[in-house]
Amino acid sequence: MKNSKLFLVACLLFAGLSFSCSDDDEPELGDCNTVCQSTIASGESAGTVAPSVVGKYTLTMQYATAESPYPDGTVGEFEVFANNTLSVKIEGKCVTLGNPIQSGTSEVTFKDNCVYNLFFGVSEKNGGGLNEINIGKGTMFLGQFHD
Predict the structure, then answer these.
(1) How crowded is residue 39: how many other Cβ atoms within 10 Å of its Cβ?
(2) Among 126, 125, 116, which Cα is nearest to 147's?
(3) Residues 57-61: what's their mean pLDDT?
(4) Are strands 75-81 and 85-90 parallel, antiparallel or unpaired?
(5) Contact 100, 82 (CB under 8 A)
(6) pLDDT band at residue 30, thresholds of 50, 70 and 90?
(7) Which residues pair with 27 in a beta bridge?
(8) Hey, is 83 helix, strand or coil?
(9) Given the DSSP bridges, would you call strands 75-81 and 107-111 parallel, antiparallel or unpaired?
């Protein structure tokens, strides 16, 4: 039992160190003052943003689940950068995320443990261009931001 508690404390400490948040006066990219870099976990692969999705988008939440923090119709502003960063602005909050993981052949996922406590999956269309930005928490899908 004592070893189990020690293991749990060690896991929680490691999870807390897996993310880095800072209030930068001058963020590297985007206009968010908070920059959040996640650490790529064992078994995950570093993601690379597809060149065709780089750009600035104003998207609307669709297919929101009951657990989603944002109902259908919520508008978010997103900027995807070629250096594998993503700026997210929703309802007055803003964060710039870095260090995505490859979550599919046409999707990279940015983890945010600083502002929204969600993941943002930037998905590319088959022919190129932005398809959608999925949001979720843990393994739970919560909705999609679309044009």
Answers:
(1) 14
(2) 125
(3) 98
(4) antiparallel
(5) no
(6) low
(7) none
(8) coil
(9) unpaired
Sheet strand arrangement including 85-90: 19-23, 34-38, 93-98, 85-90, 75-81, 55-62, 140-146, 130-137, 119-124, 107-111, 101-104
The total number of residues shown for the chain amounts to 147
What is the DSSP track for 11-77? HHHHHHHTEEEEE-SS-SSSS-SEEEEEPPPTT--B----GGG-EEEEEEEES--TT-SS-TT-EEE
Please give the structure tokens belonging to residue 13: 């400490």
Q: By the 8 A CB rule, do 117 and 110 touch? A: no
pLDDT at residue 136 tops 70: yes
Reference 69, options 29, 15, 119; nearest CA is 119
